[in-house]
Amino acid sequence: MSLDTLKSAVPDYAKDLKLNLGSVIGNNDKLTPQQLWGTVLATAIASRSPIVLRELEPEAKAQLSPEAYNAAKAAAAIMAMNNVFYRTRHLLSDPEYGTLRAGLRMNVIGNPGVEKVDFELWSLAVSAVNGCGQCLDSHEQVLRKAGVDRETVQEAFKIASVVQAVGTTLESEAALAG
C-alpha cells in the first residue's frame, strides 16, 4: 500500500489529480516530514475515503513517531466535531449563538503531544476538507502569529484539496463499478 498504488488507481480523466498527488506529497520540500505526513494522515481521515486512508495510512504511520501519529488522528477527530459546531454557529443568522459557551471538550488542542504549530497545521488542513471558514481563520491566525509563512500554510491546504479530490474521485469510481 503506497502513494504509488494510490496514484495508479486514479483514472486517466483525473490525470491532474495524479500529478498533484505526486507533487504535494511525493516531492514536498516545504514541510517537515512530520508536518507532511501528519497533514496527509489527518486529511486522509477527514476525506472519509476508505481507499485513500487504506493507501496512505501505512506510510504515514511509518514516517511519524507514535506521538505524532496519534496527534494527527486527534486533529482529524477534534476538528470533525469543531468544524460542524463552528460552521453551524457561523451559518446561523442569529448572532446570539456566537455568545453562548460552546461547552465542548477540546483539551487536545491545548496539549496535543506534538509541536503546537504542527497540530495547528493539521487542524487547518482538516478544516479545509470540512469547509469551516471560522476554524480556518482561527488556525491560520495562530500559525501566522507563530511565524509560519503563508506558503507553508498554503501547502497544508493544497494537500487537503488534493487528498479530498482523490478520495472523491476514487470513491465515485468504486460506486460506479459496483
Please describe the topology of this protein.
Blueprint (H helix, E strand, L loop, with lengths): L2 H7 L5 H12 L6 H14 L3 H14 L2 H26 L15 H4 L5 H15 L2 H13 L4 H28 L1
Helix pairs in contact: 1-2, 2-9, 3-4, 3-5, 3-7, 3-9, 5-7, 7-8, 7-9
Subunit structure: Homotrimer.
Protein name: Alkyl hydroperoxide reductase AhpD
Keywords: Antioxidant, Disulfide bond, Oxidoreductase, Peroxidase, Redox-active center
Structure characterization notes:
The protein is mainly alpha-helical and 178 residues long. It has one domain (3-177): AhpD-like (Up-down Bundle), CATH 1.20.1290.10. The protein has nine helices and no strands. The chain has helices at 3-9, 15-26, 33-46, 50-63, 66-91, 107-110, 116-130, 133-145, 150-177. α3 runs antiparallel to α4, α3 runs parallel beside α9 (150-177) and α7 packs antiparallel against α8 (133-145). The longest helix has 28 residues, at 150-177. The chain is globular. The model has no long low-confidence stretch (mean pLDDT 95). Disulfide bonds join 132-135. It comes from Streptomyces qinzhouensis. Keywords: Antioxidant, Disulfide bond, Oxidoreductase, Peroxidase, Redox-active center.
